[in-house]
Structure formats: structure tokens, C-alpha cells
From TrEMBL:
Annotated keywords: Transferase
Domain Glycosyl transferase family: start-end pairs: 176-317
GO molecular function: glycosyltransferase activity
Entry annotated with the keyword Transferase: yes
Gene3D superfamilies xrefs: Glycogen Phosphorylase B (3.40.50.2000)
Record has Transcription as a keyword: no
Span of domain Glycosyltransferase subfamily 4-like N-terminal: 10-165
UniProt cross-references to InterPro entries, sorted A to Z: Glyco_trans_1, Glyco_trans_4-like_N
Protein name: Glycosyltransferase involved in cell wall biosynthesis
A Pfam family this chain is assigned to: Glyco_transf_4
């Protein structure tokens, strides 16, 4: 049983819906339980049994989740996102024959200082909220270290499984540089994603450019206002959330990531998959596990180095950019890691 708060746009939602549909049906009988509403779903989940509980929050969905676990007696319950993992940790002692696995979505200690938390929950008040989970999946080694060091999770409970490449669109053709450089960033419009510092950097870029920002969020007005203040507003295009992300990315020269912390940056991975190289800050999280300097992009330490790499008009081979990530994160590799974990936790 896979449990999510919703199927709205997000990395955890994309990965869990993908895994639930694609694990080996000869070995497992997956079921996807969504606390929220079908009308909010942006992912195709036609290849798995889905139950929508039609509740606004995990807290109000808990009685229904308890009833489902009692009725279906799953051998494993897999949850994702910290407040859902904490809720499942609370339930774990009452279901001794079920193994509970959480999947964490970010470097949690680095996110605690964010001014705005997307979803407040009383579960956040519980100390050591993951202690009753049988295993915790982390998307990156930084995340695993954070859980061991700052949340006292036993090391043998931690399993690092990166996010999978869920589809392989066509790789973009090799394209010569044009006079106007084309940059893109994809992600929700929040402070942690670093859009404002990217604008600062671009304001110092001495070549014509177009910068496309794809995503929705509360920081939209502040981003556009800053672009006006910096005199680069006419070079900015904002695109709200879209299912045509790959088409947008493939039309650009570079993917820019300004994040201060990441779990495992799916949009950055998708950029490499279509053959568009990236420039990203060496932030806590999984970015450094994707970006290989001079192979699929550049990993930088500060804004000065970021600008320096922007001015490096290196010619990239899209096929090579793509190959660098497909070898590590293709769906067969990642699905096998999930399947092995599920089998081991049942048998051991």
C-alpha cells in the first residue's frame, strides 16, 4: 500500500505514482491510497488500483487509512513526505504484521528555517517522528546523513534510492549557438528554489538572453518585480505549471538551478534526459549526484562562479548529456532497488 496526501504536481507524487504502477506485478500487488481528491490529480495512474479518500489533509484521512490497513492487511505500507511518514510511524505499533517504510523528500534539517512551510501539520510537533518506521528511503546521500545525524535514525534503517527517469522523451538535436542565449528554470516559485539570486546573476550577464521560468507559487510577484528592478524584465518569460516541461527544456541552451537545498531535483534530471546541460549550485541534497562537471553541466560554489560558467560558451553534445544520467537513473535500475528493499524487509 502506497500512501500520498495528493496527486498534485510534485516530486514525491511523481515518483511514488510511478513506482506503484511499475513494480513487478508478479511479485507484488500494489495499491495507491490518496488522502485527497481525484480532481487534483495531474498524474496518470491508470496502471494501478487507486483509492481516493477525498479528505483535505492526512490528519482527517487517518481513520480511513486505518480502516484500509485493517481490511487489506498489506505486508508493506510505503509513505512519502515527512508529515505523512510521521503519521505512519504513529500507526506502526498497532499493526505488528505490517512493515512501514517512509520516503523522505528533502534534507529536512535544512528546510526547517524556511519562512513559509507548504503544509503545516500537528505531526511536525512530535519528537523523532520517524522512530517506529521499519525503514526510511532517502533520495540522496546528503539526505541519509541528515537523517542519521539530526534525527537519530539508525543507519541500518536508511536506504538511499535515487529518483528514477520515468520516461525517455526524444533527445534534442545538436544545435549551434544563437546570438540570444536561452536559459530555463523549472520549479515551484518559493524562496528555497533561489530564483531571486539567479536574477541577480543574469543582470550581470553581458550577452542578449531569454530566461524562461516554469512553475507556480507564492513568490511569482516578487520574482517579476525584482526582474523589473534589475532591468531584465523584458528578457523574462513566466510559464505556469505545464505538462509540456520537456518540450520547453529542449528548446533552451542551459537549465539554471538556484536552489539553496534540494531533495533530488527531478526537473534538473529531466533537463539532462532531453540533452540540455545544467548549471547548479552545490547545495545540500541530490544535485551533486546528478551533475558531472564538463559532462552534463557545471556544479558551482557561489554566484561569481555561476556567472563565469554562464559566460563559458561550451558546446555540449545532447546525446552525451543524456547518457550521463540514463546509465545511473534509468527506471530498471531504480525499480529493482525498490523491489529488493521490499523483498528484504518482508523476509528479514
Amino acid at each position: 500500500m502506497f500512501i500520498l496526501p495528493s496527486l498534485s504536481a510534485g516530486g514525491a507524487e511523481r515518483v511514488i505514482s510511478f513506482v506503484s504502477q511499475n513494480i513487478d506485478k508478479k511479485k507484488f500487488q500494489p495499491q495507491l491510497v490518496i488522502a485527497g481528491f481525484e480532481k487534483d490529480s495531474v498524474y496518470d495512474v491508470s496502471n494501478v488500483e487507486v483509492i481516493y479518500l477525498n479528505k483535505p489533509r492526512i490528519l482527517t484521512a487517518l481513520p480511513s487509512i486505518v480502516s484500509l490497513i485493517k481490511k487489506n492487511k498489506p505486508k508493506i505500507v510505503v509513505s512519502s513526505i515527512s508529515h505523512v511518514n510521521t503519521a505512519m510511524s504513529m500507526l506502526s505499533p498497532f499493526f505488528k504484521k505490517t512493515k512501514f517504510i517512509g520516503r523522505e523528500a528533502t534534507v529536512l534539517s535544512k528546510r526547517s528555517n524556511e519562512k513559509k512551510i507548504r503544509q503545516w501539520s500537528p505531526f511536525r510537533l512530535l519528537p523523532n517522528g520517524f522512530k517506529n518506521l521499519d525503514a526510511l528511503i532517502c533520495q540522496s546521500h546528503d539526505m541519509a546523513e541528515d537523517m542519521i545525524t539530526n534525527f537519530n535514525i539508525p543507519e541500518d534503517h536508511i536506504h538511499v534510492i535515487n529518483n528514477p527517469i520515468s520516461n525517455l522523451p526524444d533527445v534534442k538535436p545538436l544545435q549551434p549557438f544563437t546570438e540570444v542565449r536561452k536559459f530555463i528554470t523549472v520549479g515551484r516559485l518559493t524562496e528555497v528554489k533561489g530564483h531571486l539570486r539567479l536574477l541577480d546573476i543574469l543582470s550581470k550577464f553581458n550577452h542578449p538572453f531569454n530566461y524562461t521560468i516554469v512553475g507556480s507559487g507564492g513568490l511569482k510577484d516578487a520574482i517579476l518585480l525584482k526582474a523589473k528592478e534589475l532591468g531584465i524584465y523584458d528578457s523574462i518569460e513566466h510559464v505556469p505549471f505545464t505538462n509540456e516541461v520537456n518540450e520547453y527544456i529542449s528548446k533552451h541552451d542551459l537549465f539554471l538551478q538556484g536552489s539553496f537545498v534540494e531533495g533530488f531535483p527531478n526537473a534538473l534530471l529531466e533537463s539532462c534526459v532531453v540533452g540540455t546541460p545544467v548549471i547548479a549550485f552545490n547545495a545540500p541534497g541530490g544535485t551533486k549526484e546528478i551533475v558531472e562537471n564538463n559532462i552534463n553541466g557545471f556544479l558551482v560554489e557561489n554566484e561569481e562562479e555561476f556567472l563565469e560558467k554562464l559566460n563559458n560558451f561550451k558546446e555540449w553534445n545532447p546525446e552525451h548529456v543524456r547518457a550521463s544520467v540514463v546509465k545511473k537513473f534509468n527506471k530498471n535500475v531504480i525499480l529493482k532497488q525498490y523491489e529488493d528493499l521490499f523483498e528484504n524487509i518482508i523476509h528479514n
